[in-house]
Write a structure and sequence with these properties.
Spore Coat Polysaccharide Biosynthesis Protein SpsA, Chain A, 8 helices
Amino acid sequence: MINLMVVNKREKPNRKYKEGKLEKLLEAQVENVIAVGWRPEEVVIVANFEHEHMGIKTVFAELNGHCLSGSKMFAVKWLLDNGKCGENEIIYAHDLDAWQNYWFEPPEMKDVGITTYSTSKYNGGSVFWRPVAKDIVDRVVEEIGKGEEQEEPALNRLLKSKDYRDRVTLLDNTYNVGCSGFVPRATRAKKPIRVSHFNPFNRIAWETHRMDRNYEGVVSISARLEELLRRHFNLATAIADVKGIERGKEEWVKNEKKK
């Protein structure tokens, strides 16, 4: 199995990933995947700049400028086009803020393995690809490359089409528990949660995954991962706006009673 990450750096970074943040995420990810059990030769980081950490160097490639998240698809295509993936080797492509808690073997899947949000919408942040899915990868890249569609809309439209839907496996949410719809995704996910998907620079995201911000008794992050992330990021030890959360929960209860 190949662990594939992509870092698409803009000349003028946006506020979310201003100068230095991408490198910090990248280095934390490298340390995490090695700690989880990946061998350095199994980790591929495709980027549009040179960087090295713990002996793992980025592989330079021209990436998509229209849809930054869609750069993962261009990287998967690059692996397949250049013979970097064995015939029976699975590519695990994930966002730079999708954190693996525990080691896992490749899931049972058809040609593509993907999770959803709390709805039926596919989430493109943590996806498994078999080499035989190259035709699907090529089609998704072609659609994104037109500049009219982002990665997830293209994935949802194509993977649910009659051309490809029978080759897709819907995976357990344990492989991608994100912030959107966190409670239903975390609740129904097989435990322990394998992948926690959140931006550690975002206070609310951290409180949601680690501090039980939703008062549901759900913590998605392992003690090992928390210790690693605290070495790299300034992370809270308590919820900052408890009163605001309580007001929001009271409002939610009132609305539920009105239904």
